[in-house]
């Protein structure tokens, strides 16, 4: 019976920590600052010049 409980706990821990981020209804990965910058540039919120300046700052950090 103890073996059954250990297996259950291992399955639960595996499900919590090893499930992929891209499955619907699962944990969402936070966007990195560079990802956010790329999205803002793609949507037209910032110009190419602003994009390049901010990208250079982020890559230097």
Give the SSE map.
Layout: H1 2-18, H2 33-43, H3 48-60
Description:
This protein has three helices and no strands. α2 runs antiparallel to α3. The longest helix is centred in the N-terminal third of the chain and has 17 residues. The radius of gyration is 20 Å and the shape is rod-shaped. InterPro entries: SHOCT. It comes from Mucilaginibacter rubeus.
Radius of gyration: 20 Å
**Which structural class should the secondary elements be placed in?**
mainly alpha
Order of helices and strands: HHH
Q: Whole-Å distance between the termini? A: 53 Å
Helical content class: 55-70%
- Number of DSSP strand runs: 0
The biggest sheet amounts to:
none
Tally of helical segments? 3
Overall average pLDDT? 84
| Overall geometric form | rod-shaped
- Low-pLDDT residue intervals, each spanning 5 or more residues: none
Bin the strand percentage. under 5%
Organism: Mucilaginibacter rubeus
Protein name: SHOCT domain-containing protein
Domain SHOCT: 33-58
Pfam family, one: SHOCT
Summarize the structure.
It holds the Pfam family SHOCT. The chain contains three helices and no strands.
Give short descriptive properties of this protein:
61 residues; mainly alpha; 67% helix; SHOCT; SHOCT domain-containing protein
């Amino acid at each position: 019976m103890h073996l059954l409980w250990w297996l259950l706990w291992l399955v639960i821990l595996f499900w919590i920590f090893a499930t992929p981020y891209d499955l619907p209804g699962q944990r969402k990965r936070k966007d990195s600052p560079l990802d956010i910058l790329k999205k803002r540039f793609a949507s037209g919120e910032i110009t190419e010049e602003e994009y390049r300046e901010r990208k250079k700052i982020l890559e230097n950090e």
